[in-house]
C-alpha cells in the first residue's frame, strides 16, 4: 500500500522536453517510475529516447491520457506558463497533478486551486514549489532522490524539500511507505491534513512524521485534526526555532506574525494533540525510532 502513488501509477511529464524536465524524467525512470509520456504542444508526435526507453510526446494532457491511460502528471513548467498547464491538467481530469515549479505567482496558484475545487476536485494538486512524492521501491513523481531510503512503514509529510530528504536519510534503515513534499508556498493544494488522513487510512503505515515550518497556521490546524482523527503515533518537527520575528524566511509561506506562526507556538499546539516534537531533525528521527521500538 501507499498513498497517492504506487507501482501501477502511469506518469506523464508536462515540460519533459525542457532541461529540468529531461533531467528529472531520467532520474524518475531510474527509480522505476512508469513514465508513459511527455506533453509539449510544439513537439507533439515526436518521441524522446532516455537511456534506451522511448517516451512519446503528446500535444495535450487529454491526448496523453487517452493514448496511455496516464493518471499522474508531474509539471516542470516555467512559472509564467504554470497556471495554464495546471488548468489543462484539471480540464483533462487527471487524478493527480504534482506541481514542482518554484516561483509561481500566488494569485496564479490561488486561481488554479480554486478552479480545481470548482471542477469538483477531480484532480488532486500537490505543490506548487514542492519536491513531489515518492513511494520507495514503487514510484517517484518529482525530484526526491530515490536512493536515500527504502520501503518501510513510516509515512512522511513535509513542507520543506530538503528536510524531507534529511528525514528520509535519518530513518533510511527503517524506510517509508510514502513521503509527500507538500510545498511551502502560501497557497498549496494537498495539505498536512490531507496527507495525515491518507496515512491514517493506509494499513502499511505504522507511524507518521510531519515536518512543518514557521508562518501561517497549517500546523496548528493539523494538530487539531490529529487530536480528533488520528490514532497512529505522529512525530513532528517545526523548522525555524531560531528565526527572528517578522522576518520572511526562505519559503514564501514562512512569515511570522507575533506569537502565532512561531515554531514554539506550533510545537505547543502539536504537543497538546499528543504529538512528540523534536527540536532538530535528528532528535525527531530519534523520537520516531523510540516509538517504533515500543
UniProtKB/TrEMBL annotation:
Domain called CoA-binding: residue spans: 4-104
Catalytic site positions: 251
Reactions catalysed, as given in the entry: GTP + succinate + CoA = succinyl-CoA + GDP + phosphate; succinate + ATP + CoA = succinyl-CoA + ADP + phosphate
This protein's pathway: Carbohydrate metabolism; tricarboxylic acid cycle; succinate from succinyl-CoA (ligase route): step 1/1
EC code: 6.2.1.5
Binding site for CoA: 17-20, 43, 100-102
Parts of the chain that traverse the membrane: none
Record keywords, A-Z: Ligase, Nucleotide-binding, Tricarboxylic acid cycle
Any single GO CC term annotated in Swiss-Prot or TrEMBL for this entry: succinate-CoA ligase complex (ADP-forming)
Gene Ontology molecular-function annotations: nucleotide binding; succinate-CoA ligase (ADP-forming) activity; succinate-CoA ligase (GDP-forming) activity
Protein role: Succinyl-CoA synthetase functions in the citric acid cycle (TCA), coupling the hydrolysis of succinyl-CoA to the synthesis of either ATP or GTP and thus represents the only step of substrate-level phosphorylation in the TCA. The alpha subunit of the enzyme binds the substrates coenzyme A and phosphate, while succinate binding and nucleotide specificity is provided by the beta subunit.
Family: Belongs to the succinate/malate CoA ligase alpha subunit family.
NCBIfam families hit by this protein: PRK05678.1, sucCoAalpha
Name recorded for this polypeptide: Succinate--CoA ligase [ADP-forming] subunit alpha
Source organism per UniProt: Streptomyces phaeoluteigriseus
Lineage of origin: Bacteria, Bacillati, Actinomycetota, Actinomycetes, Kitasatosporales
Gene that produces this protein: sucD
Amino acid at each position: 500500500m501507499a498513498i497517492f502513488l504506487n507501482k501501477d501509477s502511469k506518469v506523464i511529464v508536462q515540460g519533459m522536453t525542457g532541461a529540468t524536465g529531461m533531467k528529472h524524467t531520467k532520474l524518475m525512470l531510474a527509480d522505476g517510475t512508469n513514465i508513459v509520456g511527455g506533453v509539449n504542444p510544439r513537439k507533439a508526435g515526436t518521441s524522446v529516447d532516455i537511456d534506451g526507453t522511448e517516451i512519446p510526446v503528446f500535444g495535450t494532457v487529454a491526448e496523453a491520457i487517452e493514448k496511455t491511460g496516464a493518471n499522474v502528471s508531474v509539471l516542470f513548467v516555467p512559472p509564467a506558463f504554470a497556471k495554464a498547464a495546471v488548468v489543462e491538467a484539471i480540464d483533462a481530469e487527471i487524478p493527480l497533478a504534482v506541481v514542482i515549479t518554484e516561483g509561481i505567482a500566488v494569485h496564479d496558484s490561488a486561481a488554479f486551486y480554486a478552479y480545481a475545487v470548482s471542477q469538483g476536485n477531480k484532480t488532486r494538486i500537490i505543490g506548487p514549489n514542492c519536491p513531489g512524492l515518492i513511494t520507495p521501491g514503487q514510484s517517484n513523481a518529482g525530484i526526491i532522490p530515490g536512493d536515500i531510503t527504502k520501503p518501510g512503514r513510516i509515512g512522511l509529510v513535509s513542507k520543506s524539500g530538503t528536510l524531507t530528504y534529511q528525514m528520509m536519510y535519518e530513518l533510511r534503515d527503517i524506510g517509508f511507505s510514502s513521503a509527500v513534499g507538500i510545498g511551502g508556498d502560501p497557497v498549496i493544494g494537498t495539505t498536512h491534513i490531507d496527507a495525515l488522513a491518507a496515512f491514517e487510512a493506509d494499513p502499511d503505515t505504522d507511524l507518521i512524521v510531519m515536518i512543518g515550518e514557521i508562518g501561517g497556521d497549517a500546523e496548528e490546524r493539523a494538530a487539531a485534526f490529529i487530536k480528533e482523527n488520528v490514532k497512529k503515533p505522529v512525530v513532528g518537527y517545526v523548522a525555524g526555532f531560531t528565526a527572528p520575528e517578522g522576518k520572511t524566511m526562505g519559503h514564501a509561506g514562512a512569515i511570522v506574525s507575533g506569537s502565532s506562526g512561531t515554531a514554539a507556538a506550533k510545537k505547543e499546539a502539536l504537543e497538546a494533540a499528543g504529538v512528540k516534537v523534536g527540536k532538530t531533525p535528528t532528535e525527531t528521527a530519534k523520537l520516531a525510532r523510540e516509538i517504533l521500538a515500543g
